[in-house]
Amino acid sequence: MTSISGPLSTSPDQSPADRTPADRTPPDRTPPDRTSADRTSADHIIEQTYRSDWGRLVALLVLRTRRLDLVEDATSAAFERAATRWPIEGIPTNPSGWIYTTAWRFILGTLRTEEVAGRKAPLLAVGSSCWATDADNHSYLDDLGELGDERLQLILLCCHPALPTESRSALALRLVIGTSTEEIARLFLVSTATMAARLTRAKKKIVLAGIPLNSPLHDELQDRLDEVCRTVYLAFTAGYAPGSGSDLLRPDLAGEAVQLASVLQVLTPDSPQVQALLALLILQHARRDARVCDGKLITLADQDRSLWRADEL
Predict the structure, then answer these.
(1) pTM of this structure
(2) How far is residue 83 from each of residues 30, 124, 176, measured CA to CA in Å?
């Protein structure tokens, strides 16, 4: 019998009981040390990904699975897992793709469990195209940055006439923009508990009624254009509603609303209300750099106009 070189080696005639404590020391399996800078960097990327891609991810997953009841929870769970793993394992090359794939696996696991248990509702059944491998996700992930139309379809779903009027725009803010329930409640001047109940009832209504997401985009837009414009403006308002700390204002959220309004204008170029909406949002958004100074809000009269973005005005 040939002995193995190294600190754990023993002679052929040495019994395990004769080994020294050093000989019995197990190999070090401690995870690689990560500094506080690693965690800070990971937290920053997670926050940035949440703000920029939440609506895109939810829209894409809903379009693919038709399971609104699963998508939001799965996406939230994917971000939670990222917060646990990225500081230790490192930030992936494609953060949004990682979140999408992880959320998709959560959904897939739930669907398989439902299928085995026989609890899947017929109206919510998904086709065989839903049962895809990770390799099939690439075509979805490649287009992740160009999902303006899909997000508008999600807005149309949230603005469906079957839903209560007071819940439509609020649900769109939650699903499409990722606005927190607390912020939505503040915008609508109701308590957080009241708004949470509204959102829950609206999502259940969509699931139980089987409200479709894949209706013809242009027909739906013409029928619900005023409601969609109102929702986009509320999303913009959420970005400039005074908050606290580093989130005193959120021009990135307002920028998302401007982007949605731009897509809406392309889809309905002859709609005067859409043209007016886009002009108003761009005019307001062009002053974003002058709105805050030293952590304090600056009123229009006191703003430094040299900070206004003249190219947008």
Answers:
(1) 0.65
(2) 20, 31, 21
